[in-house]
Amino acid sequence: MAHILRDRVFGSSRRHQQRQPPTETAMPIYPLHDLVSPFGELGLDLSDSELRETAYEILVGACRSTGGKPLTYIPQSEKTDRTPAAAAASPSLQRSLTSTAASRVKKALGLKSSPSSRRRASGGDSVSQGKTKRSVTVGEMMRVQMRVSEQTDSRIRRALLRVAAGQLGRRMETMVLPLELLQQFKSSDFPNQQEYEAWQRRNLKILEAGLLLHPCVPHDKTDSAPKRLRVVIHGALEKLIETGKNNESMQALRGVVMSLACRSFDGSVSDTCHWADGNPLNLKLYQVLLESCFDVNEETSVIEEVDEVLELIKKTWVILGITQMLHNLCFSWILFHRYVMTGQVENDLLFASNNLLVEVEKDAKTTMDSAYAKILSYTLSSILGWAEKRLLSYRDNFNSGNIESMQNIVSLGVLSAKILVEDISHDYHRKRKEVDVARDRKLEKVNLSKRPSKSQNNHLPLLSILAQDISELAFSEKDIYSPVLKRWHPLAAGISVATLHSCYGNELKQFVAGISELTPDAIQVLRAADKLEKDLVQIAVEDAVDSDDGGKSVIREMPPYEAEAVIANLVKAWIKTRVDRLKEWVDRNLQQEVWNPRANKEHFAPSAIEVLRIIDDTLEAFFLLPIPTHFVLLPDLMNALDRCLQHYVSKVKSGCGSRSTFIPTLPSMTRCSTGSKFHGVFRKKDRTHLTHRKSQVGTTNGDTLFGVPQLCVRINTLQLIRLELGVFGKRIVAHLGNSESDIADRMGKMFELSESACMEGILQLCEATAYKVIFQELSHVLWDGLYIGEVSMSRIEPFLQGLEQYLEIISSTVHDRVRTRVITDVMKASFDGFLLVLLAGGPSRAFTRQDSDIIEEDFKFLTDLFWSNGDGLPSELIEKFSKVVKNVLPLYHTDTENLIEQFKRATLENFGSSAKSRLPLPPTSGQWNPTEPNTLLRVLCYRNDEAAAKFLKKTYNLPKKL
C-alpha cells in the first residue's frame, strides 16, 4: 500500500468526489501523538486559551482597519462566476446574521449543513431580552466560537478605541499590537491583579515568540537589539513593568520592539510591522482562527456561517503574513486534524480536506517559494504518514460498514504523495524507515481465532486452515476493499491476491520441503493450497479483465504452487515404496516356497495369496488417498504392479525347464546285425523291478521344488493370478465410476503384460510338466525299457501304468481350467517319446516287419489311455496329435526294398542331382514324416534284416554299435 501511495504515480483520479452519507460504524480512535503537527513548536509556555485570546485580539484589531478583500472559498471552476458585488462586499463585526442561504464554502468542499447551524441561521439561537429579540452579529458569533468572554471582548475593544484615537488613520499592520495593548492597560482594567499579570506576561511572550524566537526577518548577528529585548522581556516576566505612555521602561521596550519589528529583507525600514508573521507563530495563531469555523457545540460540524467567518479571518492575513496558498494548506490541515481529533467519525471533514488539497496541488505547481514548500512538505508528510499507517493495516481499520472512510483516506494519501513526488520531490525523498507491514499484517489477519484446538488439530492441519482463511480474506478483499483501491490502481485486487499468494507460498514451500512421505495431512494441505491458488488466480484474472495485458503482469508475480505436481510426486514415491516392498517380499518368500500341493485344498502357492492380497490392499489404499486425480496417477500404479506381478510370474516359472530340457540327446545312427535279437537281456525279475519302480514314481520327487506335483501347484498359481487380474480390473472400474468410463475401460486392461506372462508361464509349465513326466519320471520304462531286446517281451504296459499314475496326480491337482491343457501336453510328449523309441532308440532296439503289429497295438493302447472310453481327451484332439505317429507306423509294415527305394527317391527330391553319385546323409530335423529322408533312414537303421544292414554299410558305413 505504501508503494501505491508514494512510488506508483498516481493515475488520473476524480478530484471532486460525490459525498456519500456517513456510516454509523466509527473507525478506531487513534491518540493524537500518532499525528505530528506540521507547524512545529513555539518553544514557549503558551496555552491554547492564551493563543486564542491573542488571535482574537488580532482579529478584532484587523477588522477595525480598512482595506482588504472578503474571503470566500471558491474553487477554480467557479471563480469566473463570481460577481463584482460579492468581491466588493465589506463584512463588519457588527453585521447581523440574517442570511439563511446555504454556505458556498461548504457546498464547494462537500460539507453538509449541521442542524445547529441551520437553527442559528434561522434565528433559533437569537438572544432574547424580554419580549424583544436581538439578532446575533458576526462579531458576537466569533467571540462565542473563540470562547472569549464578553468582559475580555469589551476590554479589547476599549483598548483599540484608545489606540485609534491616539493614532488616527494608522493601519493595524503598521503597529505592534501587543505593544500598543500593553501601553493602554493598567491593573485597574482587570478584575484582579493575577489576571492583569497573566495578561501582561502573555503579551510579552508573544513579543518574544514573534521577534526573538520566530522572526519573519532573520536577525543580523551584529545587531544588539535582540539581546536587549530579551533582557527587557525576562526582567518584565520576573517583575511587572510600568506601562504608562511616558514610562522609561515602556519607552525602552517600545524602542527595541519597533527596531526589530520594522526591519525588512532588503535592510530598509518597512511600513509593515513583522511581529506575528514568522513561522510557526503565525500558523499557530491562524490555526486557532480557523478552528472557530467549527461549531463549539458540535465539534465535527463546520458552522453554516463559515463564509462570513472566513471573510473576517482574511482581515488578519496582512498581520500574520498569510497568503491564499497558506490558507488553503492550513485549512486543509485543520479539517483533517479535526477529523482525527474527534475520533474519525465524520467523513465529511476528510472529504472536504481532500477537496481543498486539490487546490493545494494547483498552488504547489505554480509557486517557487521555498518557505511555503517546506511547510507544505511537513504538512503533507504528516498526513501521508498517518494515512499510510491506517492503510497498511487497513483490514484492522476498515470494514464494509466504514469503507467510505478508507476511500477518503486513500484519496487523501494518494494526493498527498502525488504532490510530494511531483512538486516537492527533493524534500520528500528524505530517508524513510521502510517496513514490510503489508505482508506481516496480512499474515496476522489470517484469523487466529479460527486456529484449531489440540483436538481439532489432529483432524485439520494448520496450513489447511490458513489456506481457508486466506481464501476468505481474498474474497473479502475483492468485495470490500478492492473496489475502493481500484480507483487509484487498476489491478488493486490482483496485487492484493498476489501478496497473499506470496505469503502463503513461503509457508507452503517450507512445509513441502519437510514432507518425507505421503500422509493424509500432507494431501489435505496440498489440496487446500491448490484450491486457494485457483481462487486467487481467478480473482486476479477477473480483476484484470479490462487491463491492457489481461493481467499477465500480475500472474507473473504468482509463481504456481504446483501442488498437483507435488501430490503426483508424493503419490509416485508412495507407489514406488509399496511396489519395492512387494518385490522384496516376493524375492524373499519365493526362496522359501515349497510348492506343496497339500498346503491348501485349491493346490496353489500361499505366496500367491499373499501377493494378491498385498496388491488388493495397495489398490484400496490408493483409492482411499484424498487426491482429486486418481485416474491420472492410476497408470503409474498399474504399471508398477504389473511389473511386480511379471517379476513374480518369472520367479514362479524360473528353473522349471522346458521341452528341450527333458528330451534326451539322440544317439548316433547304427545298423543292426542280421537276426540279432536280444533274447534274455532282460530276465523276468528285471521286468518286475521295472514295474516296482513305476509304482514309486508319484513319490520319488515329492519333496523337491520341481517335482510333478510342485509343477502342478505352480501352474495353478499362475492360473489363480490370471483369474484375479480380471477381478482387479472390475474393482478399478467400480472405483473410478461412470464419470470416467472410458478411462475405466482402459484401466481394466492395464494388467495385459502380467496376463500375457501368466499365459506364457502356464504354457511353459504345462509343457515342462509333460516332458518331465515322459522323459524324466518315466524314462526308465520308456527310454530305458520299451522295446529293449525282444519287442514282444518289452511292450508298453509298464509305461502305461506309470503314465496313468501321473495322470491321476495331474487330474487331482491341476485347476480344471488348465487340466486339459496339461494332459494334452502329456499326450503330445508321450507320442514324441514313442516315436523317439522307434526312430532314435539306439542300437539296443531292432524291429522286424512282424513287430509292426505289436507296435501298432501298443500305440492304440497309448491313445486309448488318453481317450479313456470317452472320459478323457476328445477323440478329435487325440486324432490331431497322433497323426504323425500313425503316418510313420506303416513304414514298419513296408518291406526293406521298398523302404530303400522310398529313401533314395526322397533323398534325390531333397538334394537334387548331387545325390545321384552318392547319397548324402540327411540331417535330423526331428519333424518325423513318412516322406522325409531322415525318417526313412532311421526306420532302415532299426530294420532287423540283412538287406537293410548291407545298404547302410555300403551307403554310409554305419557301425553296428555306438
From TrEMBL:
Tell me where in this chain the MHD1 domain is found.
523-666
For this protein, the record's PROSITE patterns field holds: MHD1, MHD2
A Pfam family found in this protein is: TPR_PATROL1
Per UniProt, the ranges with Polar residues bias are 91-102
What the entry lists under PANTHER family is as follows:
GLS PROTEIN (DUF810), PROTEIN UNC-13 HOMOLOG
Record domain MHD2: where: 793-903
The UniProt entry, under InterPro entries, shows: Munc13_1, Munc13_dom-2, PATROL1_C, unc-13_homologue
Any idea what this protein is called? Answer: Mammalian uncoordinated homology 13, domain 2
Region entry Disordered: which residue ranges? 1-28, 69-135
